[in-house]
Design brief:
alpha+beta; Lambda Exonuclease, Chain A; five-stranded mixed β-sheet; two-stranded antiparallel ribbon; 9 helices; 7 strands
């Protein structure tokens, strides 16, 4: 029987940099910027509220991990590999910088030969990291050909972080991507010491310079600026020549957007007027557009305030936002 390490309790994520943080630090995460991560690590971000729907999605993904693990082990054995499951959900800390941590979904010992990206690799009792992913919907388009390293970049950063932190200078992270309940696709992330060295430097700098140094990282987006400076001081500042030019460029872009929006409205009106009262528009026998009725349920805030003012007041939240407005030239 394979010996499986018992999982450890999840520590406070504000106390360490984990695999899911790596992409944000590197600026390649589609979900979080370095500034947003810094706000979380320093306790400045409001506590995230996970609704019942999202919680069910998270719970479902966690429940699928053993299923995905078993499927990939069976598939590896079918392909002639000797496979031993040696650990599940084990957490490791970097021996030099304990704030760098990772949790590996499961770990395997592999013996045999496997083709990765057209190249044959030999595994001689090799200890590899492994990660289980459920790939559905539009996310499937971000994954490349099976048996390659073509995984979404945010995941590649996570897996490379795991190879950096886990012991033994492991060469491989196997990625088991569940696309259907009939099969699981196998992908790989191969250790690259040059990439790891660059990642390591950035993660160390993020922790010491920004988290412990309590200094925000450079902003990536307009939203980052709004997060760092939610309110103003009421004073004015003189623009540099470069910023004055950028203001003019922004005004020009906004004017172009307005022209395109107006053109869009004209075209929509012309097309809809032609379609009405039909639902589908065809050309040469093929559907090229549709205009179908659809229902939507929305809260009538005005009616709620009129009929149940106390309840409406209880659940009304006042927020302050900053709006960037340009002054029209005279």
């Amino acid at each position: 029987m394979n010996a499986v390490t018992e999982p450890v309790l999840m520590p406070d994520r504000s106390k360490f940099v984990g695999g899911s943080d790596a992409a944000a630090i590197l600026g390649v995460s589609p979900y979080k910027t370095p500034v947003e991560l810094w706000l979380e690590k320093t306790g400045r971000a409001p506590a995230e509220v996970i609704d019942a729907v999202r919680q069910r999605i998270f719970d479902r993904g966690h429940k699928l991990e053993p299923f995905i693990r078993d499927m990939v082990i069976d598939k590896l054995r079918d392909e002639g590999m000797e496979v031993e499951l040696i650990a599940c959900n084990q957490r490791y800390c970097d021996p030099e910088h304990s704030f760098m941590s990772c949790e590996i979904d499961f770990e395997l010992r592999l013996t045999g030969e496997m083709e990765i990206g057209g190249k044959l690799f030999t595994f001689d009792g090799e200890h590899v990291n492994a990660d289980a992913k459920s790939v559905t919907g539009f996310a499937r388009k971000k994954w490349g050909e099976e048996s390659t390293e073509d995984v979404p970049i945010e995941y590649a950063a996570q897996f490379m972080h795991g190879l950096m932190v886990s012991p033994g200078n492991r060469r491989f992270c196997l990625v088991a991507a569940l696309r259907s309940f009939d099969d699981v696709d196998i992908y790989w992330t191969l250790r690259d010491d040059e990439t790891i060295a660059a990642m390591r430097q950035k993660e160390i700098a993020f922790w010491y310079d920004h988290v412990l140094g309590d200094t925000p990282p450079d902003t990536f987006t307009f939203d980052d600026v709004k997060l760092l400076f939610p309110s103003d001081n009421g004073l004015s500042i003189d623009a540099t020549a470069d910023i004055a030019i950028k203001v003019q460029e922004l005004a020009s872009v906004k004017a172009q957007i307005k022209e395109l929006e107006e053109a869009e409205e004209v075209l929509k009106h012309q097309i809809a007027d032609f379609i009405n009262p039909f639902a589908i528009l065809k050309f040469d026998g093929k559907e090229i557009a549709s205009w179908k009725g659809q229902s939507a349920a929305r809260l009538d805030v005005k009616a709620l305030q009129a009929d149940l003012p106390e309840i409406a007041a209880k659940y009304t939240k006042t927020t302050t936002t900053r709006v960037l407005r340009l002054k029209k030239g005279k």
